[in-house]
Amino acid sequence: MKKQASIQPPKMPAALTEFKELEDDDYFIHACIFSHTDFPLFNTDRLTCEQVKFQNVRFTDKELPQLNLTDAIFESCDLSNADLSNAVIHRTVFKDCKLTGVNFSDATLRNVVFENCHCHYISFGFADLKQTKFLHSALRQGDFFEMKQSQLQFQQCDLEAVNFTGTELDGIDLTTSTFDELVITPEMLKGCIITSTQAASFVSAFGMLVKYE
C-alpha cells in the first residue's frame, strides 16, 4: 500500500486585515479576512484569492466558476449550492462548513482538507483531486463521477450512496467510513481498501447474491 503524503497546510501571514472592497477591475484578494457577512457579488468568473480567511461567511447560491484559491481557510461558512466549477484550489481548509450541493465539477484540488463538513449532494464530476482529505464529513449521495484522484483520503466519513462511477479507487481506504451502498465501476475497484463487513456492500455491483448459512 502506498504511503499517504502529508497534506500541506495553508501558508498564512501573521496578521490579516478586514476586507474592504475591490477597486475597479482588480479581482485579486490578498491577505485579508471576511467575517460574519455575505460574500460580495463580483461580476467576474475569474476571482483570485490568496492568503484569505473566511469566518461565518455565506456563499449560498454564489456563482464563482474558475475561482482560484491558494492558502485559504473557510471556518463555519455556508457554501450551499455554490458553483465552483473549474476552480483551482491549493492549500485550503474547509472546517465546520456547509457544502450541500456545491458544484466542484472539473475543479483541480491540491492539498485540500474538508473537516467536519456537511457535503450532501456535493459534485466532483470530472475533477482532479490530489492529496485531498475528507475528515469526519458527511457526503451522502455525493458525486465523484469519472474523477482523477491521487492520495485521496476518507476518514470517518458518511459515504452512503456516493457515486464513484468511472473513477479508479486504487489506494482509497474506506475502512473507517460508513455506507450501506456505493455506486462504483467494478473493474475500477482494484486496490480499494475495505473491511470484511463492507465487502458485502460491493456484491451487488458484481451482480452476485450472498447466501447466508
From TrEMBL:
Pfam families: Pentapeptide, Pentapeptide_4. InterPro entries: 5peptide_repeat, PA_immunity-related. It comes from the Bacteria. PANTHER family: ANTIBIOTIC RESISTANCE PROTEIN MCBG (PTHR42999), PENTAPEPTIDE REPEAT-CONTAINING PROTEIN (PTHR42999:SF1). This is Pentapeptide repeat-containing protein. It comes from Bacillus mesophilum.
